[in-house]
Design a protein that fits this description.
By secondary structure, the chain is mostly helical. About 55% of the residues lie in helices and about 0% in strands. The chain has four helices and no strands. The longest helix has 25 residues. The model has no long low-confidence stretch (mean pLDDT about 75).
Length: about 110
């Protein structure tokens, strides 16, 4: 199977992000909150999902030809990145989402 086809299949087989219950009242203390609310189980679920996403992202980086990737450009002195218009526009688009305290999950 061609590497890009295998990668496409990996991405399309990704599970949906885990559903995390809404926050409840403030905890009386940290230990009670972790044990009583199921926070530890939620953290494990999110960590497991993140590991799957990281594995697929590494495979994507390894497989996709470099001409389809964004490559940072460094200043001549190699001390800072040169401005990237596309990246700046992306974060300008993302800023209202973050300020409204919502998350953004990019799924392709």
């Amino acid at each position: 199977m061609a590497p890009l086809v295998r990668l496409r299949d990996l991405v399309s087989a990704l599970p949906p992000p885990p559903l995390i219950p809404a926050r409840g009242p403030p905890p009386r203390n940290h230990a009670e909150d972790r044990e009583g609310s199921g926070q530890a189980a939620c953290e494990e679920t999110v960590a497991g999902h993140r590991a799957v996403l990281e594995r697929v992202a590494r495979e994507f980086s390894r497989t996709v030809p470099s001409r389809f990737k964004r490559n940072p450009r460094w200043s001549p002195g190699q001390k800072e990145l040169l401005p990237d218009t596309w990246l700046e526009e992306f974060f300008a688009w993302l800023d209202p989402v973050v300020r409204s305290r919502r998350g953004l999950y990019l799924w392709f």
